[in-house]
């Protein structure tokens, strides 16, 4: 018997085939038993028609419960009215396992219940669609970077120094060496990588002991850091824009069915594939003041400010040239005014928040050293990082994308905990 994936069923109309998968749902109506089957690639309705089956096979069809595993033999037919939709006329059933009563039924469940049952929740169609989009986004980011001369350069997860400040660090006892930290971003290592390879990226889990219960924060999330030698601030933003637009196009081309399940407004997404908007931090503050927000010129933006700044925008918005005091030590000062740095945050439209943090890096040894002294950082611990500015320093820039934030915006889900298979948050580590 030919084993067929549901996604490919249209190529086998009229042939008898075998599908292997799980029962999403069952419904009976007299002589008919409807079985919604899924196999990871798609879903199909299988129909067991009593007069055409032996009593034994029809009894098997009747005995199926939600999430039972099966091998079902049948003949694919085109749906009489809906083009591109297929049905399977069942000819035989091999039950692999009859599932116990499934905890996640049709009725509405609370989020807490669903998160506690994440191992089962991932099978539901919305979660399935999100994981498929995640797959596309991941490979699209890699494809763009590969096509644009970036080499993969994996950074370590166990590190001796923090990258993004000391307030969100996870500490790990590390033998006789004292304390190690779980990486917050591979950036500092990538800056080393470019001195060997020119352009590099990493892509993996990073950790932030973020005491935030917001819908945009996880304690473990995936980051893609990219870094490029001889790239300055403007070009850095250009690369980010091209990359994000490439990802949008890839998802629209590959995940039409998934975006439909997610009820994502594809027209809105399509409109984001256009030149991004840019505001300096000062212009953004001016804009917020006009909207009546009580904010100063040295303040960072919270979720509310980010929403206000982007709610009317169809395209993502870069906020560039941030006040030096509120950004990381490694950012290069603006040549025209050293109260500002050549950093940029990319905000998604419609209030989805920050997708990317990036900057040109300080490449002058003395300037960087002074900044580190001002921030009371240990020059010994960061000796390896300062060394880069001693041996062939070059202007360079990079950025880090939060994978879950990007998926969240592209899929239109409000909470990023649904965009990663097993989310880690301050109040949850099970399952
Ligand atoms: O803006 P961040 O902190 O930048 C860096 O870590 C730089 N070292 C990156 C670089 O230049 N290579 O983090 C980058 C992105 C944010 O824009 C956001 O999308 C995501 O990582 N992010 C989080 N995502 C989920 N949960 C959290 N707690 C996050 N914190 C940051
Ligand atoms: Mg940031």
User: How far apart are the termini?
Assistant: 38 Å
| Discrete helix count | 13
Q: Give the CA-based shape.
A: elongated
- Return Rg in Å: 26 Å
What is the number of beta strands?
18
The unique ligands bound to this protein are:
4-amino-1,4-dioxobutan-2-aminium adenosine-5'-monophosphate, magnesium ion
Topology:
Layout: E1 2-3, E2 17-29, E3 32-38, E4 43-49, H1 55-63, E5 69-78, E6 86-97, H2 111-116, H3 118-121, H4 125-147, E7 151-152, E8 158-159, E9 171-173, E10 179-182, H5 187-197, E11 199-207, E12 220-229, H6 233-254, H7 256-261, H8 266-271, E13 277-280, H9 281-290, H10 303-310, E14 317-323, E15 333-334, E16 337-348, E17 353-360, H11 365-374, H12 383-387, E18 396-402, H13 403-411
Parallel strand pairs: 1-2, 4-6, 7-11, 13-14
Antiparallel strand pairs: 2-3, 2-5, 3-4, 5-6, 8-10, 9-10, 11-12, 12-18, 14-16, 15-16, 16-17, 17-18
Helix pairs in contact: 4-6, 4-13
The structure holds 4-amino-1,4-dioxobutan-2-aminium adenosine-5'-monophosphate and magnesium ion.
4-amino-1,4-dioxobutan-2-aminium adenosine-5'-monophosphate binds at residues 163-164, 184-185, 187, 208, 210, 217-218, 221, 223, 225, 354-358, 398-400, 402, 404-405.
